[in-house]
Amino acid sequence: MDLIRDAIRTIPDYPKAGIQFRDVTTLLKDARAFRAAVDLLVQPWAGQKIDKVAGIEARGFILGGAVAHQLSIGFAPVRKRGKLPHQTLIEEYELEYGEDAVEIHIDAVDEGDRVLLVDDLIATGGTAEAAVKLLRRADAEVVGAAFAVDLPDLGGAKRIEDLGVPVTSLVAFEGE
Ligand code: AMP
Asked: Is residue 59 flagged as an active site residue?
């Protein structure tokens, strides 16, 4: 896990004062760390039947796409509002200031699909919770959620587990 932790760069005060931005682009450019991260994201779910990976825009597309490829299953993009061309389901969620929304195509998953949700990082869990709600509205079963980074002080992983979705992460960083 040190390989993963050391490959993640921290940018202080980005995008605003007080936020420690955990930048995974440095992990993605490092072949060994990227390979290890994908293997470790997949590992806990290896014994389970999973039909699709749902990845959250944008860094969840990179990791989630690689996870889907490794599992030889399909990929469903969870996008920010207004980006998907076909008919969508939309779920709004609260931010610290204001609100945002995520969308999936109405046919992104099939009824009864067992779906693994993937993103680079879980902070408050607001985005992941909205994604879980969307997938459930599409009649999929969210069997788990896998993140490279957890910020446990923000409580997101607990929030997702309280929805009945098991959560795994590769590294945790204290603080925000
Ligand atoms: P949240 O909905 O609060 O769990 O925020 C999760 C989303 O915001 C993820 O897609 C992350 O990529 C991004 N994010 C939130 N906080 C950070 C942070 N400190 N460093 C990097 N990305 C973050």
From this structure: yes
CATH fold of the domain at 49-172? Rossmann fold (3.40.50)
From the number of C-beta atoms within 10 Å of its C-beta (0-12, 13-18, 19+), residue 57 rates as: middle
* The total number of residues written for the chain in this structure: 176
How much is the pTM?
0.97
Only one residue has tokens 């490092």, namely 30
Q: Which of 22, 59, 79, 159 is catalytic?
A: 59
Q: Which two tokens stand for residue 81?
A: 């509002």
Question: Using 50, 70 and 90 to split pLDDT, how confident is the model at 4?
Answer: very high
Q: Ligand 1: which atom is nearest the Cα of residue 127? A: 2
Going from the C-alpha of 138 to that of each of 10, 41, 45, 80, the distances in angstroms are 36, 24, 22, 17
Minimal CA–CA distance to 140: which of 152, 131, 150? 131
> What is the position in ligand 1's atom list of the atom closest to the CA of 59?
12
Q: Please report where in the chains the tokens 């929030």 appear, as a residue.
A: 159
Residues near ligand 1 (Cβ within 6 A): 19-22, 56, 59, 119-128, 156
Active site residue 35: no
Per residue in 116-135, pLDDT (tens digit) is 999 999 999 999 999 999 99
- In the chain, how many H helices and how many E strands? 6, 9
What is the domain partition of the chain in residue ranges? 49-172
C-alpha span between 123 and 152 (Å, rounded): 7
